Amino acid sequence: MSDIKHFLLFYDRELGRLRDIQVFPAGQEAQAAAAYAEAEHRHHAEIYASDPKLEIVLLGADSETTLRTTHSHYFEGGADSRRGVIDRLVARIQELARLLT
């Protein structure tokens, strides 16, 4: 049996943050896939709109720590997240302001 857990992520594209995460232990692949299919059906309008508001993904990893590393853009503060980009821009602006004074 595999030690891979499955993580069902609900990512709010408008806010640039994770709405929810559901964890399925190793051995519950079928339950994870069923939950994913049900979530896609329930949130169809938000996912498939011309300007999608929600992204739902099912990912496998050995731990949430690994998932936060490999898919950091889904987690607040990740280097690729909207919050991470804003934080880097603010830091750079502050650095430039210090150089100009």
Task: Write up this protein.
By secondary structure, the chain is of the alpha+beta class. It has a domain at 5-71. It has helices at 29-42, 44-47, 64-70, 82-100; strands at 5-12, 17-24, 54-61. It has a three-stranded antiparallel β-sheet with strand order 2-1-3. Strand 1 (5-12) and strand 2 (17-24) form a beta hairpin. The longest helix has 19 residues, at 82-100. 12% of the residues are buried. The model has no long low-confidence stretch (mean pLDDT 86).
Proportion of residues in extended strands: 15-25%
Strands ordered across the widest β-sheet: 2-1-3
Ends apart, CA distance between termini? 61 Å
Biggest sheet features: 3 strands, antiparallel
Mean pLDDT: 86
Q: What's the β-strand tally? A: 3
Alpha carbon gyration radius? 17 Å
Could you state the order of secondary-structure elements as H and E?
EEHHEHH
Structural class: alpha+beta
Q: What fraction, in percent, of the residue positions are helical? A: 40-55%
Poorly predicted ranges: none
Net shape: flat
**How many H/I helical runs?**
4
Task: Give the tags.
3-stranded antiparallel beta sheet; flat; 4 helices; 3 strands; 101 residues; alpha+beta
Furnish the topology, listing elements before pairings.
Elements: E1 5-12, E2 17-24, H1 29-42, H2 44-47, E3 54-61, H3 64-70, H4 82-100
In short:
With about 100 residues, this protein is an alpha+beta fold. Helix content is about 45%, strand content about 25%.
